[in-house]
Amino acid sequence: MTKKLWFQVGVGILLAMLIIKYFMEIKGILAPLVIIAKAIFLPLLLGGVLYYITEPIQRFLEKRKVPRWGSILSIFAILIAVVWIFVAIIGPPVTKQINNLVENAPAIAKEINVMQDSLLQQKNNLPEKLEESIDSAANSLQTIAVNFGKWVVQFLQSFLQAMFLLILVPFFFIFMLKDHEKFAPFIYKFFSGTRQEWIKKTLHDIDTVLRSYIQGQLLISFLLAVLLFIGYLSIGLEYALLLAIFGLFMNLIPFIGPWISAVPPIIIGFIQDPKTGILAAIVMVVAQQIESNLITPNVMGKTLDIHPLTVITVILAAGNIGGFLGIIIAVPTYAVGKAIVKNIYARRKEIKEAATSTV
């Protein structure tokens, strides 16, 4: 019985639960280590994202015989130039639109209240069952909005607390660019034979998943933001650039993010003019269809191959556990775990087949 997979999985789950239980009991002793880990996590995460964004540039330069330090200095020069262009060209209109939005916030809030009162009045004329369904949906949306607001506040607090540690970001980033080939060999050198090959393949799969997700998701979000900006400009929607940038960042949250990014432009469009609100909704639908049917399949392919229902479940669970930051890292973390489990399963299958052939 001990050789059965279900028995081994059960024992593994029980051991994991015991480890978690005793870890929670001694967390006071480990508190300093947890604080250090939290302080390092955000700079390490940002450094890793920058590495995966710029690694293709480094590979391109080094194929043309540019030395390692030359490629690193070139990447920093490119990043500084990109930031300068963003601040010089995009910064002023974004700042202007933010100031206009802040000035018009009371009027927008008043219009939203008027729209809400009008909808509530119309609701009383609906059948009882439909009215109950609307109430239930409204309560669910309110809960999601409140939780999302809490997640954003938690993220901002964590971000502000870690600002003084951001000097570590260039530190991690430089050493990732400099020594990234040494990481995998350092790990699998402790193993030998087929086990070493398995570790090497697993690390390669993890690297492929992270590379595909980070590079693909950022490129998709950027292209979607361009589509939204063009669409918003064409219908004359106010705060077009600001709303497109908001859509860019929200699209980093798979599946749920695009729906969140659709709410502000539609509300602002209806306040501006009901026709503009309808056009804003059409722009969102068209942009999302182009993104999901043309851009994402060609950029991401089926590297992650995660079902949408799994994505929703993972994101909701991660949001409750880790707040807004948990939402951001939920899907790539799940994808990495899935790659590890697939390799474990493949390894077990190879061992089983080898044992069978020997017999």
UniProtKB/TrEMBL annotation:
Segments traversing the membrane: 5-23, 29-52, 72-91, 158-177, 218-235, 241-262, 310-337
Entry superkingdom: Bacteria
Membrane disposition: Multi-pass membrane protein
Keyword Transmembrane: yes
Annotated InterPro entries: AI-2E-like
Subcellular location: Membrane
GO BP term, example: transmembrane transport
Family matches, as Pfam families: AI-2E_transport
GO cellular component, one term: membrane
Record keywords: Membrane, Transmembrane, Transmembrane helix
Similarity comment: Belongs to the autoinducer-2 exporter (AI-2E) (TC 2.A.86) family.
Protein's UniProt name: AI-2E family transporter
Organism the protein comes from: Sporosarcina psychrophila (Bacillus psychrophilus)
